[in-house]
Design a protein that fits this description.
This protein is α/β, with parallel strands linked by helices. It has two domains: 7-157, NAD(P)-binding Rossmann-like Domain (Rossmann fold, 3-Layer(aba) Sandwich); 166-321 and 345-369, Dihydrodipicolinate Reductase, domain 2. It has helices at residues 7-13, 31-34, 53-62, 76-86, 94-98, 115-124, 139-152, 166-177, 210-213, 217-233, 326-334, 345-364, and strands at residues 41-48, 66-72, 89-90, 103-109, 128-131, 156-157, 183-191, 236-244, 256-263, 268-274, 282-288, 291-296, 299-304, 368-369. A hairpin with a 2-residue loop joins strand 12 and strand 13.
């Protein structure tokens, strides 16, 4: 099994609503618990800058148990565009949302450098929070947001959807069972061709501006892989990275990188991410003394001395069902569905802190020790 993987780490990584995402005894009533006769519960969008906003708008529109009441954005035209699609009201002032008792939750898809102000206000207003990743620009603001969310006792979720993929659920199960023996090395890759295709030239230009996004291509996609690795293997000892721009399409904004992560368990992982790949066929590799698994072009190959039939010759198809998207699980939780496996605010803050350390390591050509 993973060397010295402590029970505390496993329990922390497996935190669910009621055991970590919300402080016991302090959670306000979910919308579905307040009154079944009250009809649809209501949500507001606070900031609509993120590239995932259109998909989230469609998700909310398709739900039968809720409706969007407000949309706020510092960009008035953007607010109106999304409000029109949702049949919602444009909130000229965020206070209108914070003070409305009918609004149970908010979806924050603003620029990352606006997260702290919005999250602190929403938490103070006792609104459940879906905040698009990454939570913060770095350790300081992400930590402040996590503390405020915990103090408020509200539900929290962010967009780390890789946890719910069938292959990753399978890997987590077998890592915990010890199927791989002593795990020594792991590779994770999360890449696309966004910079080559000009995906950030117009509407999403802020995402290629580290002053607003906190990161460039490496952090934007790498945060997904980072969350998965921490979820699978626990606490880190130290990190280093090499992160760079290439095309200069977005000036000095980084477009790719590779990190090395040393875990306290002894696992050594590499994390590749960026916007410059025409293809990204090998998404993950887990290698141990008694087993190996890798996913290539969407297919999992699995070999283990401890599992009958796991010879690695054919794609392994005995996988658990995929979980709903992170936003769907959050909306379900607010609607009253128990035990949804949400990301905790502290987990989200830790990802921002580690990503900040990876960028610091790259800039300083050094290893950064993790606390």
């Amino acid at each position: 099994m993973v060397r010295n993987l402590r029970r505390r780490e496993v329990l922390k990584a497996a935190a669910v609503v009621g055991a970590g995402a919300v402080l016991a005894g302090t959670r306000p009533a979910a919308a579905g618990e307040a009154s079944e006769a009250a009809g649809l519960w209501q949500v507001a969008f606070v900031g609509t800058a993120h590239v995932h906003t259109p998909g989230f708008v469609n998700t909310v529109k398709q739900r039968k148990d809720l409706r969007a009441k407000y949309v706020w954005d510092h960009d008035a035209a953007r607010a109106k565009k999304n409000a029109d699609q949702l049949g919602a009201k444009v909130a000229a002032d965020r206070k209108e949302i914070w003070s409305d008792p009918e609004v149970a939750a908010v979806v924050i898809c603003s620029e990352t450098n606006r997260h702290e102000e919005l999250v602190l206000q929403a938490a103070a207003a006792k609104k459940h929070l879906y905040v698009e990743k990454p939570l913060g620009m770095g350790a300081r603001d992400a930590g402040a947001m996590a503390a405020a969310i915990e103090k408020a006792g509200v539900l929290f979720q962010t967009g780390y959807a890789m946890r719910g993929e069938s292959v990753n659920l399978f890997l987590r199960e077998h890592i915990q069972k010890g199927t791989f023996g002593t795990i020594t090395r792991v590779r994770k890759s999360v890449c696309h061709s966004g910079s080559l295709g000009g995906w950030f030239d117009t509407d999403w230009r802020w995402m290629a501006d580290p002053k607003q996004a906190g990161v460039g291509g490496y952090g934007d996609l790498g945060t997904h892989g980072l969350d998965l690795l921490l979820w699978l293997f626990g606490d880190l000892a130290r990190v280093t990275a090499s992160i760079h721009p290439v095309t200069r399409r977005y000036g000095d904004c980084d477009e790719f990188g590779e990190g090395i992560l040393e875990f306290r368990s002894g696992v050594v992982a590499t994390l590749a991410a960026g916007w410059l790949d025409l293809a990204d066929p090998l998404s993950i590799l887990v290698s141990g003394t008694e087993g190996c698994a890798y996913q290539v072009s969407g297919k999992l190959y699995f070999q283990s001395k401890k599992v009958e039939g796991a010879d690695g010759k054919e794609p392994w198809t005995k996988l658990p069902p995929r979980l709903p998207h992170a936003l769907e699980m959050f909306l379900d939780a607010v609607g009253g569905k128990r035990d949804q496996p949400l990301v905790t605010a502290r987990e989200a803050a830790a990802r921002s802190a580690v990503m900040e350390a990876l960028y610091q390591a790259s800039a300083g050509h050094k290893w950064v020790e993790m606390k």
